[in-house]
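Private note to self, pasted from the team thread so I don't lose it. Backbone tokens:
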């Protein structure tokens, strides 16, 4: 489902996004996953622009491209609603019953708080993230502070990942009671809530 990644360190969050995209493009074909990204960070994600699974990596000053990207995803959402209606109305059931497949669409938003401050997409984001998962469209966003994403929108992100915070109280804001488990002060360490809270180490893809 939709995931939000929190952490004070911008480079840590970008490393996790890089790992996710690298993993997707090395294990899935273009028929299985289509990737798009809004990179409001250092532009690191543009390294993946030529990968066949990547539709586009859009930068902060490309307002027209941002509008076009949202229009494309919203149009695809409406298309899938009509396509799936006779097959239980959701992605998994459609693929199982129809004998056909459509690729997952994964939208990465790096530094959502910066995107939110620059463009007024709140209502569109609320609507998109409220129903997109059911139709095989996933949104993954990074946020620098616990207040960097408005509460109403945060409710649509069922999976939360916490990287390093300066204030230990912030971990409980993102994940609930961590039972005094905090990540070690090692770059790329974080916490994730599954059946319980786990500490993890972000991978570092390299040549």
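Design output:
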């Amino acid at each position: 489902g939709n995931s939000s990644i929190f952490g004070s360190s911008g480079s840590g969050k970008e490393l996790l996004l890089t790992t996710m995209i690298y993993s997707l493009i090395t294990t899935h074909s273009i028929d299985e996953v289509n990737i798009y990204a809004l990179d409001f960070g250092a532009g690191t994600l543009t390294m993946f622009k030529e990968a066949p699974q990547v539709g586009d990596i859009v930068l902060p000053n490309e307002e027209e491209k941002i509008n076009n990207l949202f229009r494309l995803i919203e149009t695809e959402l409406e298309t899938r609603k009509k396509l799936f209606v006779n097959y239980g109305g959701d992605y998994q059931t459609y693929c199982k019953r129809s004998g056909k497949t459509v690729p997952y669409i994964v939208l990465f938003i790096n530094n959502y708080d910066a995107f939110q401050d620059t463009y007024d997409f709140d209502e569109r984001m609320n609507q998109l993230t409220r129903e997109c998962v059911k139709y095989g469209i996933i949104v993954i966003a990074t946020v620098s502070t616990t207040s960097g994403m408005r509460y109403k929108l945060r409710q649509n992100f069922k999976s939360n990942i916490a990287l390093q915070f300066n204030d230990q109280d912030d971990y409980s804001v993102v994940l609930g009671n961590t039972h005094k488990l905090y990540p070690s002060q090692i770059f790329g360490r974080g916490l994730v809530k599954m059946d319980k809270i786990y500490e993890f180490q972000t991978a570092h893809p390299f040549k």
